Each structure stands twice: as structure tokens, then as C-alpha cells.
Amino acid sequence: QVQLVESGGGLVQAGGSLRLSCAASERTFNPYAMGWFRRAPGKERAFVASITWKFGNTTYGDSKNGRFAISRDYAKNTVYLQMNSLKPEDTAVYYCSARSAAGAWSYWGQGTQVTVSS
């Protein structure tokens, strides 16, 4: 069973930046896409961004485009989420996920906490 391991969360002041990383445990892991979701306190899990593994096509949820950037390192089996100009409302647990072409988001990491102070 492939494991997704996130890192890079923490506490940052509003306007600051963080970069999250998510590494897949198996080098042969070949998903159709990997992505990031987040769950803010008292809210449902929300889609943040995704990237197709082979071609690197990106999709962003809501108004993340412009402040957040998703990327992947094919050789390291790692996906990143660069978050800039962070706002207190970005405070959430961020989860890495992966899916096949026809399937749902079925692989999940344990989550990493991001806290943005005002």
C-alpha cells in the first residue's frame, strides 16, 4: 500500500509563505494526478489544487490561483504546494492525495497543520 507523507506545515504570520511537500513511499507509484485538499476548523474538506503526474497540468480550487502553486518532482515522486501571501483563513489541515485516471481520490496522507496568525 502506497503511503503519502506530508511535511512543511507550521505557524506563519499573515503575508508569509510556506511550502508543503508530499512524498509517495513507492518509487513505482504512478498516479494519474496528485493534489492537495484542506480542512479548516468547522468546515468541510475543500479542494486546493491538483496536478497531473505525466503532463503537469494544474487545476486550482476557488481563488487559490495566484497565491498557491502546485508542482511535482517526477524523479522524487514528490508533489509540492507553494503558498504565498498567506491569510488567517488559510489556516487548516492540509492533506495530500492521489488518484488514478478513472478513480476517486483514494490515497491520502496523514495531513499537516498550517496555522496563519494575524
Task: Present the secondary structure layout.
Blueprint: E1 4-7, E2 10-13, E3 18-24, E4 33-39, E5 45-52, E6 58-60, E7 68-73, E8 78-83, E9 92-99, E10 105-108, E11 112-117
Parallel strand pairs: 2-11
Antiparallel strand pairs: 1-3, 3-8, 4-5, 4-9, 5-6, 7-8, 9-10, 9-11
SS field, number of helical segments: 0
- Stretches with pLDDT under 50, minimum 5 residues: none
- Sheet with the most strands, sense and barrel status: 7 strands, mixed
Beta content comes to over 45%
The oligomeric state is single chain
Query: Gap between N and C termini, in Å?
Result: 40 Å
Helical content band: under 10%
Shape: globular
Q: Rg from C-alpha positions?
A: 13 Å
Structural class: mainly beta
* Mean pLDDT rating: 93
Secondary structure tally: strands:
11
H/E series: EEEEEEEEEEE
Characterize the structure shown.
The chain has no helices and eleven strands. With 118 residues, the chain is mainly beta. The strands form two sheets. Strands 2, 4, 5, 6, 9, 10 and 11 form a seven-stranded mixed beta sheet that branches. Strands 1-3-8-7 form a four-stranded antiparallel beta sheet, with no helix packed on it. A hairpin with a 5-residue loop joins strand 5 and strand 6 (58-60). The model has no long low-confidence stretch (mean pLDDT 93).
Kindly list the characteristics that best describe this protein.
118 residues, mainly beta, four-stranded antiparallel beta sheet, 53% strand, globular
Q: Can you describe this structure in just a few lines?
A:
Strand 5 and strand 6 (58-60) form a beta hairpin. The chain is mainly β. Helix content is 0%, strand content 53%.
